[in-house]
Design brief:
By secondary structure, the protein is mostly beta strands. About 5% of the residues lie in helices and about 40% in strands. The longest helix has 7 residues. It is globular and about 35 Å long. The relative contact order is 0.26. One of its GO terms (molecular function) is carbon-sulfur lyase activity.
Length: about 120
Amino acid sequence: MITGSCLCGDISFATAAEPQGASMCHCGQCRRQSGGIWSSAHVPEAELTITGLVSWFAASDIAKRGFCARCGSFLFWKANDEDTISFSLGSVNGPTGLRLTKHIFVADKGDYYDIADDAPQKD
């Protein structure tokens, strides 16, 4: 079981599903919303239990981002046409047991850091 929460605790989540696609996103939207790189993994939406009121922001025509309106924690990313939901690995309580599988949107990464591991990189 993986559990997590926002900084203030108003929103929590849990899943017994095995998360897939652990990745670090370097896109401009994730950098602006999180203040850096956003790491996440996804599970089927039906397998994620969310407690608390998530505020959703339609960041584009294809996806929305879920966050806590009280503390601002960026917790979820959901494509409009998919049945999965990504959750922030940084918000997980305790070890995840996951390993990074890729870096995404590296063409948009900040110029102030280097990617120093050997995980695959996708522009």
